[in-house]
Amino acid sequence: MKVYRNVPLKEFNTFGIAARARRLVVIEDDVDLALSPFAANHPSLILGAGSDTVFTHDYNGMVIMLEQKTLVTVDGCNVRAWAGMRMDDLVQWTLDNGLYGLENLSAIPGTVGAAAVQNVGAYGVEAKDSIVSVETISLGSSKRHRYTGDECHFAYRTSRFKEPGNGDELVVWVTFALSREYVPNLSYTALEGLPHATAQELREAITDLRWQKLPRPEEHGSAGSFFKNPVVDEATYQRLKAEHPDMPAPHAITQPHCPIVTYKLSAGWLIDCAGWKGKTMGRAGVWPKNALVLYNTGGCTGEEVMALAKAIQDDVTAKFGVTLQPEAIII
Ligand code: EPU
Fold it and tell me: I need a surface site. Which of 39, 122, 164, 192 has the fewest CB within 10 A?
């Protein structure tokens, strides 16, 4: 275990915001977890690769991270991965070992643990589609627990680990059920032309597609999609469709045994249509190629990001009557 004091966090959040933590603890393996020195040190903040986090102030407590390294075991088609491993490294590892199902999640920044906590998703696939269990340790009691996929309460960009009161559960291992047979998921329109691609070729196409729409982390800090796509009722959808015939077709959401259909709209389109693409406020900006992404134009603070986010939220509410919620976690 490594412990650091008064640590700059700029390198530990993909937005590149210059906050500091009173203490940073990096856990290297299961042996460290057994030592679990956490209870006496609250408040604490669990940070993955900092790819979905915006710091608006210094953190006057203990930031806990898992060492980012490759630790994987395989049992049949089940792959158990260390939560500190980079998700993109896991995707490549699975392909190298002839296991399929994660390729559409290529190039998502962040760790395996964060992928479970956020139920990350892209190009027709969500992490929950293959997660069979998530193992945690409670920072308060040091008790370990294994949750089945159902017990994780996965939904769009959320899970039980984001529910109020569950913030002290540190995700340490995630197990994915994969397949030895490669069946490509080409449901995302831009992938339709790739029926003959190998899994590695699909991964590369997805990686290219992703970087066409998102800033490259080495050039500009961001947190990927800053807002979640809003889910609205039938009346709101019909009103918007009548007012904006060019609005992209939403994703209709149905629940088993429930007649009510809701619609997931494109936040990127709403923000773009409201005229924000390419605009800046202070040193925070809206990515010129994708209005769903806020980025650091250079030296930006968390307050500047949040001021821009609030201006966008207010404008989208005024123009469309729709509320946008951040996908990013605001500290
Ligand atoms: N659009 C615009 N203008 C924009 C951005 C988007 O008109 O500036 C339109 C697009 O033309 C398209 C629609 O909005 O018709 C949807 O855009 P896209 O397919 O790029 O997907 P998204 O809804 O913006 C979501 C995820 C992404 C994921 C992509 C692909 C969320 C919040 N975002 O974006 O995830 O990569 O689908 O599956 O659900 C992330 O979560 O960080 C992330 C990047």
Answer: 164
